[in-house]
Write a structure and sequence with these properties.
Layout: E1 2-20, E2 23-39, E3 54-71, E4 74-87, E5 99-114, E6 119-136, E7 151-156, E8 160-172, E9 175-186
Antiparallel strand pairs: 1-2, 2-3, 3-4, 4-5, 5-6, 6-7, 6-8, 8-9
């Protein structure tokens, strides 16, 4: 199979508001649209695929806001984002079945530099929530979805939570060491 032609359009607006020398709010809004013609022998999951190809459309809107503040030697960041994804023609392997999702996320990070900015420590946490507005229910525990394909409407998945911590040490002007550890968790109740 192949995707030809393929066209992607993107529109982005971003800015910031400096409240003071130590506090800034950053914001961005973006819209992406891709249009592709999927050509090939077809997809096992979709009997509507024709040899002449199938149009694959994706539309994504993303809004992001972040506030950064330097307080008592700490850099604090907090914010959130909202993403909406819509494929009116269906996603790959499930062509012909419209899908819409909304993802909301919240995050925070704290960073501390020391020893004349030669060492930095940071920690962060993020929480994402996915809501499937409509589409195929392909959360089947690793098994192939049954036929006919099960559909889902207004389903919230269990929240996903991510934790990270890291350290960076500038050993010489040309050598630095970076170490990071991370972990995520999400209930298996989605399956």
């Amino acid at each position: 199979w192949e995707m030809r032609p393929s066209r992607t359009d993107m529109l982005v607006a971003a800015g910031n508001l400096a409240w003071s020398r130590r506090q800034t709010t950053l914001f961005a809004v973006s819209y992406n649209q891709s249009n592709q013609k999927l050509n090939g022998a077809g997809s096992l999951a979709n009997l509507n695929f024709e040899d002449g190809g199938h149009l694959n459309e994706n539309r994504t809107t993303h809004i992001n806001v972040r506030h950064v503040a330097d307080i008592s030697g700490f850099r604090l960041s907090a914010g959130g984002d909202l993403m909406r994804w819509h494929t009116p023609t269906g996603q790959n392997s499930y062509e012909g079945i419209e899908r819409r999702e909304r993802i909301t996320g919240l995050f925070t990070q704290v960073e501390r530099s020391m020893l004349r900015n030669r060492v930095a420590l940071d920690a962060s946490v993020r929480r994402d929530q996915v809501r499937i507005l409509n589409g195929v229910d392909y959360f089947t525990g690793g098994a192939q979805p049954p036929q006919p394909l099960p559909l889902v409407t207004n389903r919230s998945l269990a929240p996903a939570v991510f934790f990270t911590a890291g350290a960076n040490a500038q050993l010489t002007p040309w050598l630095s060491l970076l170490g990071r550890v991370g972990r995520n968790r999400q209930s298996d109740s989605n399956i």
